[in-house]
Amino acid sequence: MRAAVLTGIEQVEVQDFPEAEAAPGWVVVTVEAASLCGTDSHQYDGRIDTPFPRVPGHDFAGRVERVGEGVDESLVGAAVAVKPSLPCGECDQCGKGKPADCTRKKLIGLWSDGCMRERIAVPAVNLIPRPEGVEAWQASLLEPLAVGLNTVDRLRILLGETVVVLGQGPIGLALTRLCALSGAGRLIVTDAREAPFEIARTYGASDCVNVAEVDDAKQAILDLTGGAGADIVIETSGFPSSSEMMLDLVRKEGKVAHIGWANDLPPLPVVPLMAKTLTVFGIGGNGGRGQYERALELVRSGRFDLEPLVTHRYALEDVADAFATAHAKTDGAIKVIVEP
Amino acid sequence: MRAAVLTGIEQVEVQDFPEAEAAPGWVVVTVEAASLCGTDSHQYDGRIDTPFPRVPGHDFAGRVERVGEGVDESLVGAAVAVKPSLPCGECDQCGKGKPADCTRKKLIGLWSDGCMRERIAVPAVNLIPRPEGVEAWQASLLEPLAVGLNTVDRLRILLGETVVVLGQGPIGLALTRLCALSGAGRLIVTDAREAPFEIARTYGASDCVNVAEVDDAKQAILDLTGGAGADIVIETSGFPSSSEMMLDLVRKEGKVAHIGWANDLPPLPVVPLMAKTLTVFGIGGNGGRGQYERALELVRSGRFDLEPLVTHRYALEDVADAFATAHAKTDGAIKVIVEP
Amino acid sequence: MRAAVLTGIEQVEVQDFPEAEAAPGWVVVTVEAASLCGTDSHQYDGRIDTPFPRVPGHDFAGRVERVGEGVDESLVGAAVAVKPSLPCGECDQCGKGKPADCTRKKLIGLWSDGCMRERIAVPAVNLIPRPEGVEAWQASLLEPLAVGLNTVDRLRILLGETVVVLGQGPIGLALTRLCALSGAGRLIVTDAREAPFEIARTYGASDCVNVAEVDDAKQAILDLTGGAGADIVIETSGFPSSSEMMLDLVRKEGKVAHIGWANDLPPLPVVPLMAKTLTVFGIGGNGGRGQYERALELVRSGRFDLEPLVTHRYALEDVADAFATAHAKTDGAIKVIVEP
Amino acid sequence: MRAAVLTGIEQVEVQDFPEAEAAPGWVVVTVEAASLCGTDSHQYDGRIDTPFPRVPGHDFAGRVERVGEGVDESLVGAAVAVKPSLPCGECDQCGKGKPADCTRKKLIGLWSDGCMRERIAVPAVNLIPRPEGVEAWQASLLEPLAVGLNTVDRLRILLGETVVVLGQGPIGLALTRLCALSGAGRLIVTDAREAPFEIARTYGASDCVNVAEVDDAKQAILDLTGGAGADIVIETSGFPSSSEMMLDLVRKEGKVAHIGWANDLPPLPVVPLMAKTLTVFGIGGNGGRGQYERALELVRSGRFDLEPLVTHRYALEDVADAFATAHAKTDGAIKVIVEP
After folding, report:
1. Which residue, B169, B179, B108, B126, is CA-closest to B148?
2. Residue-level pLDDT at A40
3. Contact call for D160 and C298, based on CB within 8 A
4. b/e sequence A160-192, b meaning 16+ C-beta within 10 Å
5. What secondary structure does DSSP assign to B172-206, as a single string?
6. Cis status of the peptide bond prior to A53, with omega within 30 of 0
7. Nearest CA in chain C to B265
8. How far is CA C230 from the centre of its chain?
9. Which one, A8, C19, C140, D156, has the greatest CB density within 10 A?
10. pLDDT band at residue D143 under the 50/70/90 scheme
11. Dist CA B30 CA B61 (whole Å)
12. How many CA atoms lie within 13 A of D20 on its CB side?
């Protein structure tokens, strides 16, 4: 079969690749759509250092092609979304026959070959049935929604609270929509580009602040909260200047969530945490407790419309363009989809 | 001044009434709008037994006309909403000078003369500033929203959960809107009339079940939840047949809230509570912890549109018609407003 | 091997029984100690109607004797506690290879032969490693602790809150100890016998009320709370007279948990739930989310001393006496242990 | 009357001082005992910069001597504890006649003259009735308990969780006791002195680590948690080396509370917060929502024995020695009491 292969930094090409096989408990899935995320970009430009050659990609959906021993035959042909992390196979939970509870799961596409190819084998426990009416490209975009759900589940927004979402990339936009659906009152978002604001408004943002345009972004946001600070601040951008103003933007006894990941983030001063009696939530992933399934239902019911997020679509043969676009964020790129 | 006076069961007339005076710490408010609720109807038909003659009414808004000693003069002329319960003046909290924390507050209009008149005196601590753009008739409708907020605050809906709201009177409709805003997924509502369903759909209901029309209401609702029962069931109707099916409609480990008040409610069997590991919340009022202020903000921001709830408006002179309409629920009556 | 067999109502005898076999994924455990609980008594006297002949018993501990295919060989010889419910083998979760997540688990000893014998086969996922220093008789008593943990986990006692535990059988005593450990302030317990009060005091009860001795049990308890009612009331007795006073014993905005199971429990009136803004938790089991493991650690660390609970011990050959004692609750019986 | 007066950095002397007067709504309290805390020491050595001369001190208890206008006369002679912060008199809450809800309260002894004198005037709303059996010196020590309660209230310890308390000064020891009472399982404490460990063990610590004695404090603590990290870590010492290891000591998905206040605290790295999905609670005070009253009840009931904390007692005339001892922490000083 054909596969996209990273052969070096910023080098991706389509090659012939060995066919996927279904081990006992595993299935082979035909990849119908795969989406690119920040992790793929970081792997592409070398900030995440994985061995080459490597088939990248972890967010995808498709149909079950074949099943391995011990897996229900009736799954063949089923439309599925796929959870992107593999059980380690070595920990206590894996040893007890509970791979779904593995605490050391590893993302495919980084430490094993990923989904940017025609077919891939995954454990049957990673499958989520894709209901009628949810297309493969939609189901390939569940990850940012699952991360967002893990965030709002922990924040427990009280109806009407003022929320600030810093950064309007895919995760930031997902949070904007999920906070709007969860009862946020005033919903202030920021970015350094104008492009995402139209989507943000569609998703429920009440106020959009372009941090590259205003003189004093922090003051502009504070003014929108009436000076007292927001009930909740969520940092998704990973930009030091954004992370830095987080604690100043939240009110006394407020809550902060940090999702934006970067190696050069400034550390948090401790005294304001105490002086303002804050609660800080570190968000490291999608939680793995039903968030994928709930994200799928939000898409199915139409409450989360993914259409505005998808700015570019490529065939597998054009995967090099897909990576270049996603990495450069040129041309208003938010989410880039590859359809093998 | 003129006042509506209950002179006996189902007898209300407009009479001359002594002027309101502002004691120290109190203010006189000009009543611009008052709304009728179930309590008023129960007092009107004698199910709540209060002394006659009595000026009824507790949900109202207006402007400060005069202030008593010790109250900031600058309040004169201010547009206000008014919390409807008076501190008892005798408990520990009142004795400590903290009337706002009184735990034995009493509703005006029942045990003291209420708001169905041109002017009324209330403690300054009962005032809530009414912001620009919120009209008096809107501010006279905060009570069902505050009760609803007290309910969703305790239920803590997780984004996407299935919610059933039994009964679509004013409180039921408020809950429908508040649950939709708070992240309910599938949102099923019931009533024995068709009239409220149009409003319910506008407010975010996904499914409306007319319990007077279907053969087996319980089964019809369960079917809409896929057979497993809802995550959350909220009973607002006060009808025995509705309260009775509540525990059957909720899923294992689900939550139930009961707001619908009536003297003939069937008691709850205990074994299903245990067998299904349920949590039951009894809701007895508006909580009194900022819910009024937050309700006002939901109205101000346009997230809760009160217009559909108001089906009838009367001048003070026509208050007898107002009570008759609200009590009989004729002519599609949901909320009846009196504007003195 | 030898096994206790229920051959009819109140008829139990020791018989020869076919040897246990370890199917794939299962293990054979040598039973070192088994404890009797209320469910066993109800099965014995026919209130729970199971087919005869039947080997009763579900609460036990021992050592792994043999392992079936696919189970780690190194488990042989391991000291274990055993979770007493079997996965159904037919539901979605079981079908996905996640038997630990089965939602229709069935207690052994009722619908399949139980643990009152020398050896029994159970799924490997039901095993909990028994640490150094925890004896088999202790590990056979985890069930009431796990149920109790499931209760205090949901109640979330605030340090210093006043708690009432109604009934001081094994579950009631477990709750007394767990509430004391969890921060209860005043801790009031009730029973109709004097016998358990000495244990209750050792476990941390501050006040013991013999409901058979006082004129007005409800008033006596209320007086101990200063008249205002307790923050939390936990009903474990299953007696109608106890369940009936529950809502009167709790303060406004307080919490109630109901664990005591009986078919003749009076239903709960709804109006007090609303008037007092109560929260009611139905407790139907041990929760199955780590409570067994945590119960084991409480025993291991010595924070929960099980010794006072065990009033009688029997060899397997004397199992008829064991059942008679446990059922009649004669001779101050709290917990009866059988050691095959 | 006589008063202790700070006349400059590390200079305190006893002087004659004008008599206290009770304004309307205020009372004059005879100071029977006052305790010294870290804030007093910081003011004494100039790290907190307040104007001189100043009467220091804010933690005290005594009896009501006189009452001002509008205060219940029957309070005269009452034994009381006193909340140490004064309402600002200028904010919205104060303006509404709700001084107890003031959000800008100021500690006495810093920005106004404090309690290290024979008599002091305070608002009646600051009084807490001191029950029979609670002596003045005990009631002068409520502040660290109230701060500790505010901490455990937010952390919500699950019964049996492993807790680490870094630092065993007064606040750290209070947390040790409160965590033990709240259900902590393994309870590991640290300090750089041996002296507090005996108290810590009495209070319920299971393991004491002298960070000045072990080679690698972090590893020693981790080893006590079985390598996985604690469920909860509470930093109370204010030492950079202690604060620095906090995030390494907590398990994945664990909770951290930071109370130890210092200007040279190292900032928190953000990536570990995300990678480990942590929740961080900044604790800035006693919460002001009933914690004082609950602290008093813990003392009254004997569940929190304050005796071990009090290492030194002085008469008012020897206040200079009291400050010197408390500041230098010589002679095993934990809590120093002054009894005017």
Report:
1. B179
2. 92
3. yes
4. bbbbbbbbbbbbbbbbbbbbbbbbbbbbbbbbb
5. HHHHHHHHHHTT-SSEEEEESSSHHHHHHHHHT-S
6. yes
7. C270
8. 25
9. C140
10. very high
11. 8
12. 27
Q: Does B22 have pLDDT greater than 90?
A: yes
The predicted structure's pLDDT at residue B293: 92
ipTM value of the model?
A: 0.93
Amino acid letter, residue A322: A
Two tokens, residue C21: 């076999």
CA B272/CA C282 separation, integer angstroms = 8
If one compares B65 and B48, the residue with the highest pLDDT of the two is B65
The whole-model pTM stands at: 0.94
Q: How far apart are CA C22 and CA C30, in angstroms?
A: 12
Helix segments in D240-334, DSSP class H: 240-249, 270-275, 291-300, 319-328
> What DSSP string describes C315-326?
EGGGHHHHHHHH
Hey, what are C160's tokens? 């210093």
Confidence of residue D98 (pLDDT cuts 50, 70, 90): low
The DSSP bridge partners found for residue B268 are C268
On the question of pLDDT at C75 being above 90, the answer is yes
Reported as a single tens digit per residue, the pLDDT across C95-150 is 666 676 777 788 899 989 999 999 999 999 899 999 999 999 999 999 999 999 99
Band the pLDDT of D67: cuts 50, 70, 90: very high
Q: Closest chain B residue to D101 measured between Cα atoms?
A: B98
What's the rounded Cα separation, in Å, for the pair C230 and C207? 13
A97: chain C residues, CB-CB within 8 Å: 25, 70, 97, 124-125
Beta partners for A107? A85
Model pLDDT for residues D260-318, shown as the tens digit of each residue:
988 889 999 999 999 999 999 999 888 878 899 999 999 999 999 999 999 999 999 99
C96/A125 CB distance under 8 A: yes
H helices of D162-265, where?
170-181, 195-203, 217-224, 240-249
Known catalytic residue at B42: yes
Question: Which chain D residues contact residue A286 at CB under 8 A?
Answer: none
Which residues on D lie below 8 Å from B125 (Cβ)? 96-98
Mean of all residue pLDDT scores within chain D: 93
- Distance set, CA A282 to CA A258, B45, C340, D229, D280 (Å): 5, 57, 51, 17, 8
Q: Under the phi-then-psi rule, with left for phi > 0, alpha for psi from -120 to 50, and beta for the rest, what region is C329?
A: left
* Of C327, C323, C283, C281, residue with least CA distance to C146: C283
List phi, psi (to 5°) of D107.
-65, 130
Dihedral through CA D237, CA D241, CA D242, CA D245, nearest 10?
Answer: 160
Which residues, other chains included, contact D158 with Cβ-Cβ below 8 Å and sequence gap of 6+?
C153, D183, D231
Nearest 5°: the CA angle D264, D267, D270 is 175
DSSP of B20-67, one letter per residue? P---TTEEEEEEEEEEE-HHHHHHHTTSS---SSB----EEEEEEEEE
> Tell me: the pLDDT tens digits for A53-98?
999 999 999 999 999 998 989 999 999 999 998 888 777 777 666 6
Q: Quick check: is C327 catalytic?
A: no
Question: Do the beta carbons of residue D12 and residue D43 sit within 8 Å?
Answer: no
Please give the distance of CA B324 from its chain centroid, rounded to a whole number.
19
Distance from CA of residue D189 to its chain's centroid?
18
Q: How far is B168 from B173, CA to CA, in rounded Å?
A: 5
**Cβ contacts of residue C325 below 8 Å, gap of 6+?**
C312, C331, C333, C336
Average pLDDT over residues B156-172: 96
What single-letter amino acid sits at C301?
A: S
What is the structure's pLDDT at B95?
66
Q: Please report the domains of chain D, with CATH numbers, ordered by start residue.
A: 2-141+306-339 (3.90.180.10), 144-282 (3.40.50.720)
Tokens of A266: 């400034």
DSSP state at residue C20: P
